[in-house]
User: What shape does this take?
Amino acid sequence: MAVKYRKELDSISPYVPGKPIDDVKRELGLDRVIKLASNENPLGFSSSVREAVIRALDEVNLYPDGNATLLKEKIAEKYGVTPEEVLPTCGSDEMVDLIAKTFIDQGSEVVLAEVTFPRYFSTSQMMGADLKIVPMKDMAYDIEGFKKVITPETRLVWLCNPNNPTGSFFTRGELIELLEFISPETLVVYDEAYYEFADHPDYPKDSVELAKEYKNMLVMKTLSKAYGIAGLRIGFTIGDPVLLGLINRIRNPFNVTMLSQAAAVAALDDDEFLVRIIENNQAGKYYLYEEFDKMGLEYVKTEANHIAFNAGKDGGLVFQELLQRGVIIRPIGGEKYRTWLRVSIGTMEENREFIRALQEVLA
Assistant: This one.
């Protein structure tokens, strides 16, 4: 007799991360491989982070502060909220999982976009949600489409802005329009992992202020992207203390390590490093736009640190051909978008290597 498990798992596939550099080198016998698949920071991380982690090593025999007190205070100071309105987690991934476990029942109506961060799908399915999927409109969120499927019974709405993997965004006006439309009893999870890269004048830079007004809104942020400490797994969510208090009931007591807390405090203090990251991203973005235009490729103008583009041929094949040339990117997947791929913006040298390899593959 087989051990029984949740039947919801039958419809869930494991998350497939970007292929590691060392694996590609070993499998293909390559000396140099560049990874532009996981939206990582190409310039590394702040030197102050290294110093903070080294100092914290002296105390790794002790449990970390389960309340992440100093980190909460640092985040609260930076974003103009109280520590009670902040909840750090082991990356945003953990928070996505905790939110699903806290707020979704079997049969709960959950609304999300057709092409967005895949963990929204799997964690919602895991809890037995009834998924209402809104098709994309020109590779971007269709806010009117969301309004057509959201009902007073909707339990949760997942929003990613700028969106992963398309890099597209929706405006502050559209966000407010949606928040006004949604019942205050419906949870709105607003994931802005790529917030720091967005510079369009219509992008909602005041999301934290909106969360103070709309108590059913949680704002998720991360230090994996612009701050460059993805390997330490640290994210945080800002919102109403009542909602965070519910999530906190099932949070693992020492979910954010001592090293991660120390690194996060240091990273949040280094504004000079952040400016360098954003400048590199802007330069790389416009270089890739120009090269895609020369090649006649369709692409999505991005507010993130990655660009979705249409290679015009099967994305899986393009991915494999680039892999042979030591360049790792990522297909968007699905039959409808089978010719689309996502490339992370790297250093200028990496961007040029990618373009050279892509030209060879598509020639």
Summary: The chain is about 40% helix and 15% strand.
